[in-house]
Amino acid sequence: MEIKGDGSGEISEFDPEMKMDGKGGDELDLSPNLFLDNVGEVILTINSNELSWKSLESTDNNDLNSSSCLGIKLNSKAETELKIPDIYAVEFKNWSSIHQSVISNAGAALLVREHGVEMYRFAVHGFKRSSTKRSLWVLATYTFGNADLPTCQKWVDKINFYVNKEIGRPKRLLVFVHPLSGKGNGCMTWGTVSPIFSRAKVKTKVIVTERAGHAFDVMASLSNKELNSYDGVVAVGGDGFFNEILNGLLSSRHKAPYPPSPAEVIDSAKNSCSTSVSHPTETVPETSQEYKEQDALLQSAAPTRTGSDCDSCATGESTSFPLPNERFRFGIIPSGSTDAIVICTTGARDPITSALQIILGKSVRLDIAQVVRWKTTASSKDAPYVRYTASFAGYGFYGDVIKESERYRWMGPKRYDYAGTKVFLKHKSYEVEIAYLDVQTEAVKSASRKDLLDTGIQQLWRSWVPSKKTKREICRMNCQICNESSETNYMLACDPTATQETNHGHSGWLRCKGRFLSIGGAVISCRNERAPDGLVANAHLADGFLDLILIKDCPHAFYLWHLTQLARKGGKPLNFEFVEHFKTPAFVFTSIGEESIWNLDGELLQAHQLSAQVFRGLITLFATGPDI
Question: Annotated region Disordered: where (predicted)?
């Protein structure tokens, strides 16, 4: 009998005339008796949920299950099932050996021997979760055999029938590989995972970048028709490389009103009192920092848009590429220096885990922040320049570290530790003016604080020790906060700030001015190996908020205390009086005097004035969300 296929892994379609029972279970004409490699003879069953097997050895020799060797119980913990959604490929392997374990009871000990028997084989490829870290996915292959060729072929067809019913799995992907990312192992990382894509029959067009901006140029030049021919785009690299690909797609396709400029916000508050930040060595006033409420977001800057307006956001071409776009997803296979986005969205910094989540079509929505630079320097006259960020926008300490680290690229990822130490020892603060859009949530209730009644050393100490602040639900897989209605999510992508105002009641601009060591706008928690809980442990992937973190000028020792809390699992880096934390959909920034530089997902941006707003769930990632 001839095998359907060419023997290279191409499997024929399931025969619809095969007889099946009323429950869609075992086929009446298909033998369930097979041999499982390294186990022995098993009874194999399948339904729409799982593929399972039971060893005939355990059925016939139940007494062996309670046997012991040297007083140690030998209960088997072997896998006996594989969920259909966890199977990514089935391969016919032709004629070869299946190894069987033969167990004999010899007094008080068990003797285990293995011998090979040649037969036709097929392999079922899936994954299992690591026993030490649940979020880590480990490849698992189960090889079954039978001396009868039609039996093996029918089992291959039947398993493929159920696997092919899984929806959302990509068929064609565009892959960018950064050869110099992280420790320069981008190509090696892709070489490790590419066989998994081939095995799963996912077609990939691979582009190894040759220069900075190469991926951006390719993404920006693709027509909507070309983009729609792919199910997604995958970045093999770090956060900065993903940022380049993201900006290449959004720069020409995402059409939305800019957030208001700092001048617009400050002009609307010209009669309000300026605020300042007190240095701990100075006398502490009744309120250490005052925030004044200003007019809500200017309607001229963010006009209300209708659904038909949103349809035209993507492009003027006849073939549309809508945003948000749940069909076209982004994937990241980690090969960078920090890989914070991957850690926050998959729970693991592991290329195999990321590849499997891409192949199996996992999906999670992700907020994206739009950053608009209005002025490069105080005296420049620039056209608005737009950048997008998926994880973090930071100024002061965060920008100085990235700028300093550029001098030491030859050091690899260690350059961040070295540059961070140098910047920390300089302890530079910068005078800026910040205004953020306030919304009525529990996360932004620090606008007024009770007066400090103590004096002298006690007053100074209490103003800087950690304080208790409201806890918030941690983002995790199937997060309820992130999985709110798609209609709300869609409207936010078209006009985020206006919709936030509708959802959360009255909003207004709150303004503060003073000296800060750092300013951070976190889109996600930014977990990484140096900060295991991230900058903001309770940040969400798609809640429509930025976490604005203002670190006021403070003594060296107190800032070190804050940084050590960041580096600790379970630390409380935000629970200091010199740290302000606000949930906001938008903020504006103006530098005063000496300037630092902005860090956008690891990429540098010089800006004297800028505005930022978040677009809720603007893109979809191939990921499950953090499995905590």
Answer: 1-23
